[in-house]
Amino acid sequence: MLNSFSKCPICYCDVKLFDVVDFNKSCEENRGKFLPLAGIPIYYSRCTVCSFTYAPEFTSWTEQDFLEKIYNDEYIEIDPDYLEVRPGANAKGLSDIFKGQSQHIHHLDYGGGNGRMSDLLKAEGWQSKSYDPFPKNDIDLATLGKFNLITSLEVFEHVPDVQALMVNLTTALADDGLILFSTLITDNDIKPNQRMTWWYASPRNGHISLFSRQSLMMLGATYGLNLASFSDGFHCFYKNVPAWASHIIKTA
Ligand SMILES: [Zn+2]
């Protein structure tokens, strides 16, 4: 039985049960592809203050559970772009944003999977490393050093422990650094007293933590970080804006 009165992992205020979807709800429904129903209900709770919406079920899953039930051989069917298309597009996007500035940048791609995006950037002369805490491995993040640009693209929504994520990111972040990250915010798509039909709220893709703009601001503030958003899906946490990035924060 889910406890509908537990506390929000971001602002520690009350959360309430919000909605329930089938485990096999996937982001590919947005492209017209529907998996058969799994018959497994996944509940999402929503914070009554910051509107963070998350699936408490997954906070008790082990790494093995995630590997067997979500990030398994069938994962590519419901996220066909993750191996090649998205890393390529993201590397090109970063190159364009920081054109002519790469000599100032010490880059870490956090949650970078097989490291494809980082490899593409290195081929363009960037200093770039990739680190992924999942699945568990021998690399100690603290030994990689500090980075003035950390990217974390389509990672936040997959994370069951958002505080652990922020501890890791801020451990690796240089004082004059930026965290550029992508995750779609819920503000225009999840509303009180409405059913959650939003394509992005998909357990089968491992989308278990869904952020409102306010919840991102509060999460960043906990770590002394400001939030700038460039769109509903692309954001930046920062303390001090380095000169090589001043052109992007001005436009936020
Ligand atoms: Zn909250």
From TrEMBL:
Signal peptide as annotated in the record: none
Pfam families: Methyltransf_23
Keywords per UniProt: Methyltransferase, Transferase
Molecular function terms, GO-annotated: methyltransferase activity
Any GO BP annotation: methylation
Top-level taxon: Bacteria
InterPro entries reported for this sequence: SAM-dependent_MTases_sf
Protein name: Methyltransferase family protein
